[in-house]
Amino acid sequence: MPVLNVAFVGSEEFARTLAKKGDVRDIESYVHKEVVDGQIRILSLLRPLRHPERLRPLLSVLNVAKAGIVEIAKVDAALGEVLVAFGAADIAIGHAIISPEEGGWVDPEQIRVILDQAGLAGWILHEEVPDEHTLRNSLLSTLSTGDENEPLVIPIDQHFNVKGVGLVAIGYVQAGTVSKHDEIHVLPAQENGIARSLQVMDDDVEQSIAGDRVGVALRNIREEALHRGCILTHVDGDALVCHNSSKFLLSPAPFQKRLLSKGDVVHAAVDLQFQVGRITEIDPTTCYITVEWEQPLWIQKREAAPIIIVQLDAGNMRIMGVGQSIVPA
Asked: Fewer CB atoms inside 10 Å of the end CB: C or N, the chain?
């Protein structure tokens, strides 16, 4: 079942016009399922909660989304950080929708300038809230099947034991496919097991593809091996590289005036990982930054999602930029 995951920043009321509300964690999910010419299409809205107080839910959503919707009630620092985060995550398909607070006004020209500066020049700007059918169709027209031929990568965001089923890990298929009875490898625990069954959108399936939010019932894996940000791949796969420390160039975020220094603490957000590290070196000649991570950071070998570099004490703009040419140090 092809799924388009959409990062949604806006009101719950607007989200409910587009899709049916599902589970709630630090991220709310809304799902719209339709059948066109005998084919099922699914729109999955992922709405991060508690921004700007918490940044990680927003970045987690951006790690898995392929499109975006931002409902704009007012122009403030929080909106700027949201749009910069979408640009850093390379979300090229998106809709910015002006929906002012009662008695308020938002200047469309100002929003166009901010979108361009944030790297979102290709987004569609709506000066009023569009018809929900039109918006859904516009998004679903961009739906693709994803990277099914790549090695399997499933970052996990939750897990639990189910009576009669056993240990279940839930996450988004970022690349590749997983089938029942596949041999599964868990990182960083380095444990092997078997996918005894799969479930997508509450349906039992034989195979799950890129874009799916899948529940994988696992056999021969300890519950202690699973945690938020761990990754499932195939036993014989070669999808990821372990970074205990990394060296990279930083592509600075728009509007970011702060410079990183040796000794600074930063986080890397990629594939639902949010790893903390400390800068141990900044080469004055090449401008390469070296970071030693508190826990291993796993980076896909393929050209995949950007690695967003964050500094949580950097004020209103915590997105420092994107790590380019990242290699183990």
From this structure: N
